[in-house]
Specification:
The protein has 9 helices and 25 strands.
Amino acid sequence: MITPGDQVVLRLWGAFQYAQVQTVDPQGNVFLPNIGPIHLAGVRNQDLQRVITGAAAGTFRSNVYVYASLAEAQPVRVFVGGFVRRPGLYDGTSMDGLLHYLDAAGGIDPDRGTFIDVEVKRGEQVRAHVNLYQFLFRGVMPPVPLGDGDVIFVGPRQQTVTVTGLANNANVFEFPRNAHPTTADVMLLAGPLPTATHMRITRANGPVKNVDYRPLAEAGSLPVGNGDAIAFTSDQKAGTITVRIDGEHESPQEYVLPYGAHLGDLLRQIRFSQRSDAGSIQLFRQSVKDRQKTMLEASLHSLEQAALTARSGTSDESQLRRNEADLILQWIDRARKVEPLGQVVIGQGPARDDLLLENGDQLHVPTRDGLVLVSGEVLFPNAVAWQAGLAADGYVARAGGFTQKSAARRIVVAHADGSFEEVSAQSHAVRSGDDLLVLPRIDTKSRQILKDMTQILYQIAVSAKVVLGL
C-alpha cells in the first residue's frame, strides 16, 4: 500500500504533457495540474495506474494518456519489542511487511513469545492484532502498512499444548489465554498419521501428573489445558505377517500369513524344484541382525578400550604398543562397517517346524550346485567343486593354499543350513553348498587382546560369513 512519503512517477502525454516524480504529502495526496489533488494513501501499488487514469479521465475526456508507477517507498524505522531474540530499532521501507521486521529482530522467541497475538502500535493506539497461525496454516497475512516510529510488540506466550508421536506436524501449539481448547482443536493443527489409533494425554495441572489414554474415535472433544502433552500412538495388533522367499523354488516369492504362523505352515506351501536343497533352508531375520550388530559393536568397543589402555614397561615397549594400537584401531574401523546377515540356525530337528515366524522374515532356498566356497586367508579365494571324502585342507589346496597370514589350524565351516563348526585341516565335515572360512593369524603381544580379537573374528565369521584380515 502507498503511504505518505512514498515517491510516485507520473507521466501524461497526448493533448496534455506532464512528467514529474512526486512525493505523497502528509495528507496522502499528490497534485496534478488541471486535475487537482488525488488521494493515494492506502491505495495498493497494483491499483495505482487505475486510480490516476480515473482521475485524469474526469478532466480530459480523450487524447490524454497516463502512466503511473511507484518509484521509491518511504524509508521508515520500526521498533520491534517484546519477546523477540534481538529487540531494537530496524530500518526498512513502507513497503516492508510485518514478517520483514520480525525476521530482522531474530524472530519470535519460541519459548517465551506469542505467535497468535502480535500487536502493531502507533503511539498508544493498537492498530492491529496479527495471528501468525493464520499465515502458518492458511497462508493469510493481513495487510498492515507500517510507518516511521511504529512499534511491533510480541507479548508473552499464552496457553501451549505439546504434541509428539505419530503426527504430521508434531510441535508445540499455542491457544489464546481465555480459550478452552479441546483435543479436536489439537488434532486439526497436528494432523495425526493414518497409523495413529490412540492418544495419550499427560495432564500438567497440580502436583500430581495424570495420564489419560483414549482411542482417537473417543478422544475428539476432551478438554486440554496449558502445559498438557499429547502423544499420538499406534495400538494396532498385528493380524498378518509377510514373509519373502527367494532362491531355488517354484512358488510365489511373498506370502501373507496369520500372526503367530510357524515355519512348518510356510514350508508346506512351498513347491520345491529338482535343484532345491530343501534340507538346508536358510532363515534371515531383521531382529537377529540388529542383535548381532549390537553384540559386535560391544565387542569392538571392549577391544578398542583394551588397545588404548595397554601398559608398557619401557619406552621401546611403549612405541611397540602404540604401533600395535594403531593397527588394531584401523582394523576396528573396518570391522564396524561389516553388516551381519541376521541368519537364524534352524537346524534339522523335529522342532524346526514349530519355529514362530516374524513379520519381514526372509527364507532362502539354496541350490544344489555342488560347490564349496573357500575364502579368507587363502591365495585364491574361489568356489571349488565338492568332492566326497575330500578333507578341508584339500579344498584349501585347490584355492591356492594357505597365505602367510593364515592360522592353518583355524578353519570354520559355515553349513548351508546356517550352522557353524570349527574343523581341523584333515576334517571331512565339508558338505556341498558349505562356505569354508580360513581365519587369519593374530600376532600381538597382549594375551587379553589376542583373546578379544579371536572372539571377534569368530563373531564376524559367524554373523556375516566374512573373514576380516588384519
